[in-house]
């Protein structure tokens, strides 16, 4: 095992630990502050009503307010579609990179047909 690969494993472990610490800290801090988890839409609505009580929206929502289960399902569907698009894009980029590497290494080493029979 090379030293570079060993370092990359420790970097990955460190990043996972930092992400875990951030998640735990945010949950503990949020629970300690007595705050509820609410979306940005609700917070924006409250701020707008404080700043400009006579504000009227420019348009109405296309769908009525959905129950929590349906809303969570639509959000999960949206996340799945986005993840699929990002994964497809990363796969295309990786395949292109691999094909470029193979074409460069293939051009650097002469093929048997190009050199002809050796020693005959």
TrEMBL record:
Residues 98-120 are annotated as: Disordered. Pathway: Cofactor biosynthesis; adenosylcobalamin biosynthesis. Its main location: membrane. Coiled coil: none annotated. Pfam families: CbiN. Keywords: Cell membrane, Cobalamin biosynthesis, Cobalt, Cobalt transport, Ion transport, Membrane, Transmembrane, Transmembrane helix, Transport. It is a multi-pass membrane protein. Residues 105-120 have a biased composition (Low complexity). It is found in: Cell membrane. Part of the energy-coupling factor (ECF) transporter complex CbiMNOQ involved in cobalt import. Forms an energy-coupling factor (ECF) transporter complex composed of an ATP-binding protein (A component, CbiO), a transmembrane protein (T component, CbiQ) and 2 possible substrate-capture proteins (S components, CbiM and CbiN) of unknown stoichimetry. NCBIfam families: PRK02898.1. This is Cobalt transport protein CbiN.
């Amino acid at each position: 095992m090379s030293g570079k690969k060993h370092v990359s494993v420790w970097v990955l472990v460190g990043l996972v630990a930092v992400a875990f610490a951030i998640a735990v800290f945010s949950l503990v801090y949020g629970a300690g502050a007595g705050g509820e988890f609410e979306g940005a839409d609700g917070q924006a609505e409250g701020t707008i009503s404080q700043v400009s009580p006579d504000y009227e929206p420019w348009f109405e929502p296309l769908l009525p307010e959905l129950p929590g289960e349906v809303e969570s399902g639509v959000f999960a569907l949206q996340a799945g579609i986005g993840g699929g698009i990002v994964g497809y894009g990363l796969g295309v980029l990786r395949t292109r990179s691999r094909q470029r590497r193979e074409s460069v290494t293939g051009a650097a080493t002469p093929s048997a047909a190009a050199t002809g029979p050796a020693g005959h």
